[in-house]
Write a structure and sequence with these properties.
Number of domains of chain B: 1
CATH architecture of chain B: 3-Layer(aba) Sandwich
Distance between the termini of chain B: 19 Å
Largest sheet of chain A: 6 strands, mixed, barrel
Oligomer: heterodimer
Number of helices of chain B: 7
Distance between the termini of chain A: 31 Å
Radius of gyration of chain A: 38 Å
Helix content of chain B: 25-40%
Number of strands of chain A: 17
Number of strands of chain B: 10
Strand content of chain B: 25-35%
Shape of chain B: globular
Strand order of the largest sheet of chain B: 6-7-8-3-9-10
């Protein structure tokens, strides 16, 4: 087989080109391997996490010994683990390895009499069986999970399709470069009788031989790269956002599916063969004399006007026309560069915007506290929250963000006018000043001593009207609503008439629909005289409430009277009956806490959880936000990595395209110099060619991102959130990033063009021309 | 303006055992306005000589003078300017720029010089080359003869003192060859240009003023044909 012999000889003769082609194949394969391993690792970690949480495909509960014995002999099960539950009942944790079209129907075949699965409702009997749906899905045990697996794979392949194209271009150009200089040889071979098929076979053999080296090297490189990236991710702390320390040890492992590696290798081999075949076909489409004389680029039409020509004169005109000679290649390269610039420049930006939107949401939702804690209270003792509050204060971990005792009251005025409803708000000393713009005009101690209140800022009151109220009233005669708990015994002892006065506090569970009577109470109204200590506009909440809800806060039609928590504890609580508070009437008092030192988060949380007899941790925004921020950060890192990867591929492709273009025009560039073009002019022309790549990509990226931003803005407008989130869209913000990326592209291209130029200059013009003659 | 003097030119390729002497101590002078043919077998060093005379390739030793100026004393940039202004090179395979049309190819050396081609001069050259109708055609849209005429037009457009043609008819049929030679001869006479023509075709060589014969890099013959002009070997 002379084709094989020649292929080997060419590889040996053109060591540098062969090395370059092997490198291109290896790099392409390494990147594909990295992606495939990333995918299998992601799926593997998900699977392990699902197994870690529930180490079974399903758990059958409330079993008898006979049933368990029956399960142990089931041939479908790979394991059937005996579990004795806390209540002494017997359960079996089961793993299976068989595929079942409908998992529910299969479950029903285990104990047909139990009807563990309702096909009609598509639900399982939760008291008898617990199915680990995620594990079932990830182990592809039923039709739906196979469907999702195919769906996931399809998404993955759509995602990597760009990589595939970009990487193929990389191999393509490597082949083109190495075969370019051999075109003459192929022409001669054809002249001496080689059939076109034989020429193609020489090149495909060459591809095969180079693949034998390139593909294993690429896969090994990819494995090494994957390991490095995985270690970097592990040590970056990203995993901690999703898993506990034990889970990390159990699930954070690199998964390397041999099937995907084989798939990667096959893909790589197919690319190489297609590239080699394509190169062969291109060569045999030329006549032997064309190949010998290296005279392709049959240009039929040129566009006479060009912007570059206008800007840079004849050099710009030549550069523009040169770039248009390989329109398809130019467009593909510019497209890949544009996508890369968009990714590199805008991913970080979009994610920063997303981060800003995230922070904005946090701000708008008034989530700028770390923990929401419900302090358990005794319904019969309005001051029983003091134990929990005291513990929090003593712990030293927290600052109080908000703690408010609230009572509803009204000012009766006279019979002719409508009563004015007001809220009595009692704030602790730590936060008292923060509730008023500019702080409290009267010291906390004074207000406590006097038991007086500050008129604060209801939105339908102007500051002037507040001042007028203040002038008019030094005290208010109010009627305060109170609730007194009615125990079951007391309720049963009441007459029907008295019972009619009693109200029920019921709880409707939105999820289960449960309707529960929590307690009964009597509403009482207690007359009180409240001294006025001053007035101050309320801080926070109002503007935010208006922005987010489109209205002022809920108390807009009420007069707000702010008192001190100490005053409340000193006696004001008595106005509100035994229940003490109107708003938090479900047996808890909500307190919002801010961590004094973020690094104590874990300890502080442990403290709250350890006192579950006193507190109930209702909201962990610090953890949630940290998780959110870390997730955004992780996505940022991931996408940043991918975009840099795509950027590198695009730049390598551009470098290859430019190098190939220069080599293709080696003879022509020599001819230009023969008729008087200086090396400086030649370099200038090639720099302008590179500039066109960068400029076109930069402009395309700019237009694309502006259109995306506009669409985003219009979308926000349509859903009515442009006022809230519109401010995070800055049309000019991505431009510096885009043009910095374009400048990097330009510099890389210019550097890339100088290398072949420099190599060419080593030969005399005669030698450069001699490749033709 | 255009006398060419070659002094002891040597051009050696390779080293040691692989050493090839493409030109071996070649010396001659071509006076201004003379049309000289360089003939010889393949590998005799004709093209190498032409490239060295045209400032395209540096000799290993020896000097080339154009109007008493040693062209290889010039740096690369000045040498490029020299090729642009003082020499017109014509190749067998034309070496046209595929993205430029006939007119743009012809005017390229002037444009490269930062000048604007004079329209009248462009018209005159296109007319002279018979390319007026083909001025907007790209090289790929022209026949071999037309391409060679574009190449000659490009070489003549700057009115250089010396025209060097490397088998300008080597790729053309006899009718086109005759046209090209007539064009060169006409330019030689009308513009008093010094011309050196490499050819394998004896009949073409006989139309020149002088025939220099090369063999193995050495001049083995130098004769005046009696067509005009004189030689000073």
């Amino acid at each position: 087989m002379f084709e094989r012999l020649l292929a080997l000889r060419y590889i040996k003769a053109q060591k540098r080109h062969s090395f370059f082609t092997v490198c291109s194949i290896a790099v392409a394969l390494a990147l594909v391997t990295l992606l495939f391993i990333a995918f299998s690792t992601y799926m593997g970690i998900r699977r392990d996490a699902a197994y870690y949480e529930k180490p079974y495909h399903f758990k059958l509960m409330q079993l008898t010994e006979e049933e368990f014995a029956q399960l142990e002999t089931n041939p479908d099960f790979t394991s059937c683990e005996r579990i004795t539950e806390a209540d002494g009942s017997l359960s079996a944790a089961i793993m299976i390895n068989t595929y079942h079209e409908d998992f529910g129907l299969y479950i029903n075949t285990i104990f047909p009499d139990k009807y563990l699965y309702s096909d009609l409702k598509e639900t399982y009997k939760e008291d008898l069986i617990d199915v680990n749906f995620e594990l079932v899905e990830l182990d592809r045990l039923d039709f739906a999970s196979k469907y999702y697996a195919v769906y996931r794979l399809a998404l993955f392949f759509i995602f990597i399709i760009f990589f595939v194209l970009a990487l193929r271009l990389m191999i393509d150009t490597a082949f083109e470069i190495s075969s370019k200089e051999r075109e003459r040889q192929y022409g001669i071979l054809q002249c001496t009788g080689a059939a076109p098929g034989q020429i193609v076979r020489i090149i495909t053999w060459e591809g095969l031989f180079l693949s034998i080296v390139g593909i294993p090297v690429g896969i090994l490189l990819g494995l090494g790269l994957s390991f490095g990236v995985f270690q970097a991710i592990r040590s970056s702390g990203v995993a901690e956002a999703f898993f506990t320390a034990e889970e990390i040890t159990a699930v954070m492992k690199l998964h390397c599916s041999p099937l995907l590696l084989v798939l990667g290798a096959v893909t790589g081999l197919v690319w190489v063969m297609i590239s080699a075949y394509g190169t062969g076909m291109r060569i045999i489409r030329m006549s032997p004399i064309q190949a010998i004389s290296n005279r392709e680029n049959k240009i039929r039409k040129v566009r006479r006007f060009s912007l570059l020509g206008l800007l840079f004169g004849w050099k710009g005109m030549l550069a523009a026309r040169n770039n248009r000679r390989q329109t398809k290649r130019f467009v593909v390269t510019v497209m890949s560069l544009t996508v890369s610039i968009l990714l590199v420049a805008s991913f970080s930006l979009v994610l920063r915007q997303a981060f800003a939107a995230f922070e904005k949401t946090v701000e708008v939702l008034d989530l700028d506290y770390d923990f929401g804690v419900n302090i358990k209270v005794d319904p019969a003792d309005p001051l029983s929250y003091k134990e929990g509050l005291g513990l929090i204060r003593e712990s030293g971990y927290f600052d109080i963000d908000t703690f408010t005792k609230t009572q509803l009251a009204y000012i009766p005025f006279d019979e002719d006018s409508e009563p004015l409803f007001c809220l009595l708000l009692y704030y602790p000393e730590e936060t008292f000043d923060s509730h008023f713009i500019g702080g409290s005009p009267v010291p906390y101690e004074t207000l406590t001593e006097q038991g007086s209140y500050l008129i604060t800022h209801p939105t339908n009151f102007t500051e002037q009207s507040l001042a007028d109220v203040l002038k008019k009233y030094t005290q208010f005669d109010v009627v305060v609503q109170g609730r007194t708990l009615v125990t079951d015994d007391a309720y049963n002892a009441m007459t029907a008439e008295e019972q009619a006065q009693v109200e029920d506090y019921v709880f409707d569970d939105p999820v289960t629909g449960e309707h529960a009577l929590l307690y009964r109470y009597l509403t009482e109204w207690t007359a009180a005289t409240l001294p006025v200590g001053g007035s101050a506009p309320a801080a926070k909440t109002d503007a935010q409430a208006k922005k987010f809800f489109g209205v002022s806060h809920d108390y807009s039609n009420m007069l707000l009277l702010a008192g001190t928590l100490d005053a409340y504890e000193n006696g004001a609580y008595a106005y509100a009956g035994s229940y003490g508070s109107l708003i938090n009437s479900d047996g808890t008092e909500n307190i919002r806490l801010v961590l004094r030192d973020d690094s104590t988060y874990e300890e502080a949380k442990a403290f709250l959880l350890a006192h579950d007899d006193v507190f109930e941790l209702d909201e962990d925004f610090f953890g949630d936000l940290r998780k959110g921020r870390t997730t955004v950060g992780a996505i940022q890192i991931g996408f940043g990595f991918l975009s840099v990867l795509i950027g590198l591929i695009a730049i390598v492709n551009m470098v290859n395209t430019i190098s190939t273009g220069m080599l293709n025009r080696k003879h022509e560039l020599a001819a230009l110099q023969c008729i008087g073009m200086t090396q400086g002019q030649l370099r200038a022309m090639t720099v302008i060619e590179c500039l066109q790549y960068a400029l076109t990509s930069g402009i395309a990226a700019t237009v694309t991102i502006e259109v995306l931003f506009l669409e985003m803005y219009l979308f926000l407008k349509v859903i009515g959130l442009e006022e809230v989130f519109g401010e995070i869209i800055h049309f000019t913000e991505p431009l510096p990033l885009i043009w910095i990326s374009a400048a990097v592209v330009f510099l890389a291209a210019a550097a890339a063009s100088f290398i072949p130029l420099q190599r060419m200059q080593k030969d005399s013009l005669t030698d450069q021309l001699r490749c033709v003659e | 303006m255009g006398s060419l003097k070659v002094e002891h030119i040597c051009k050696i390729y390779g080293k040691g055992e692989n050493e090839v002497r493409a030109l071996d101590d070649v010396s001659f002078t071509v006076p201004e306005g003379q049309l000289a043919a360089v003939v010889g077998a393949s590998g005799s060093g004709k093209s190498t000589l032409l490239h060295i005379l045209g400032g395209v390739d540096r000799p290993t030793s020896g000097k080339v003078f154009l109007d008493e100026q040693d062209i290889y004393a010039l740096n690369n940039k000045d040498l490029a300017v020299f090729r642009r202004r003082q020499v017109g090179l014509i190749y067998q395979f034309y070496n046209l720029i595929p993205v430029l049309d006939a007119e743009e190819n012809i005017t390229l050396p002037v444009v490269m010089d930062g000048q604007k081609p004079e329209p009248a001069k462009v018209e005159e050259m296109l007319q002279l080359m018979g390319l007026t109708e083909r001025r907007r055609h790209l090289p790929s849209q022209l026949s071999g003869g037309q391409q060679q005429r574009v190449s000659i037009g490009r070489a003549l457009f700057t009115a250089p003192g010396v025209i060097l043609a490397d088998e300008p008819t080597g790729n053309l049929d006899s009718k086109q060859s005759a046209e090209i030679i007539a064009l060169l001869r006409r330019s030689n006479r009308e513009r008093k240009q010094t011309m050196l023509l490499i050819t394998h075709d004896e009949s073409i060589a006989r139309q020149c003023d002088r025939i220099i014969t090369l063999s193995d890099g050495k001049i083995i013959g130098d004769e005046l044909t009696g067509q005009g002009g004189g030689a000073d070997v």
